[in-house]
Design goal:
The protein folds into two domains: 20-137, no CATH class; 145-332, no CATH class. 46% of the residues lie in helices and 13% in strands. It has 14 helices and nine strands. It has helices spanning 34-45, 73-76, 87-91, 93-107, 123-135, 161-182, 186-189, 199-205, 214-224, 235-249, 277-291, 294-307, 312-316, 319-330, and strands spanning 22-29, 48-53, 56-61, 64-70, 110-113, 117-118, 150-154, 232-233, 262-263. Helix 1 packs across helix 5 (123-135). The protein starts with 21 loop residues before the first strand and ends with a helix.
């Protein structure tokens, strides 16, 4: 692995209590039969696989349990031998399931979900993705109906409102730049779960005097973004902070509490030899570094506020291009 492919480390690698920060990763792919993917992943991860339910397997490793599943609840839960079904359907069950399996593994993503991994272990994901590519895994370019994604769940250094606001500001400022770098599949560009935050919300948090407490921070976001369908989904974090308050705005059983951000923007372009997991992770580190550098963040926030005004410069240049130039000048 060349140095420019390696996963960069953010400046802040530990939580406030001194423990190494962790990251969960979710990878959606196709191109490999489910059983083959489980067996291959277990070998690559030096783990032991066990089937937990239909199309859901766990791989026990030294770093924790990886989950491999078909990303479709109706198919995972399907049972054509259910005694409540007519006998004629149950008699066809075995043959029907073979046909359903054959079709599902070609149009529904298979998902690999890592345990929370220490930052120092992220090279494991890089190596796993590269090995799966060599084995024939396919990504977003091959998706027929689904848009395959690569999702990150980075643990935060701490959960103080001021820290959270700075992460939100950094992401909002860099959203267009990140989208241009990691949205290669046209079908995903039109899906709702990678929507940006509401413009009025972004304008609010970009004001230099915005300094809410935890309750106000949550209410401000949820007023404008009461949905999971955002490129940076804050609902798992808010469920961890104050689930009762969250449920005033969003009552969705799919929201699972955890002290992390949920970054959903990037495509999974795993079958592209020039694509690597580290290409996604390293761009996230740009957000990390901006969020933890007050001077640079203040500077880019001022640039963003200026970009929202009517001017010749704003009419003739894009915010994405200006971000790109700013990052080059500031070596972010």
């Amino acid at each position: 692995m060349s140095q420019d492919q390696a996963c960069r480390m953010p400046t802040i690698r530990n939580t406030r209590d001194g423990k190494e920060r962790r990251v969960g990763v979710e990878i959606e792919i196709s191109g490999l039969p489910y059983d083959n993917l489980v067996s291959l992943s277990a070998t690559l991860l030096e783990g032991k696989a066990r089937l937990e339910s239909r199309y859901v397997s766990k791989i026990k490793t030294a770093m924790g349990d990886y989950t491999i599943e078909l990303d479709s609840d109706p198919i995972k839960d399907l049972d054509l031998q259910d005694e409540r079904l007519p006998e004629s359907i149950r008699e066809l069950g075995g043959h029907a399931m073979e046909m359903i399996d054959f079709a599902a593994e070609r149009i529904v993503p298979l998902e690999i979900i890592t345990p929370p991994l220490p930052l120092s272990e992220l090279e494991t994901v890089e190596q796993l993705c590269d090995s799966l590519r060599e084995a024939g895994a396919l990504g977003s370019r091959e998706a027929l109906l689904y848009a395959f994604g690569m999702q990150l769940n980075p643990e935060l250094p701490d959960l103080e409102p001021a820290t959270l606001v700075n992460y939100f500001r950094a992401f909002a400022a860099l959203y267009e730049w990140l989208k241009a770098r990691h949205q290669i599949d046209i079908s995903r560009k039109f899906t709702t779960y990678i929507e940006p935050w509401h413009n009025d919300y972004v304008d609010m948090i970009m004001e230099p005097d915005y300094a809410p407490d935890q309750s106000q921070l949550m209410r401000d976001y949820l007023h404008y973004n009461p949905t999971r369908n955002r490129a940076l989904d804050l609902l798992p974090l808010f469920a961890h902070l104050d689930e009762t308050l969250l449920r005033e705005y969003v009552d969705d059983e799919r929201v699972k509490a955890r002290p992390t951000l949920h970054y959903r923007l990037p495509d999974c372009d795993i079958d592209n030899p020039k694509w690597h997991f580290s290409s996604v992770w390293n761009d996230w580190v740009v957000v990390e570094e901006l969020a933890t550098d007050p001077e640079k963040l203040t500077n880019l926030m001022a640039e963003y506020r200026q970009s929202r005004k009517l001017s010749f410069k704003n009419l003739t240049t894009s915010w994405k291009d200006r971000c790109d130039e700013w990052l080059k000048q500031n070596q972010a």
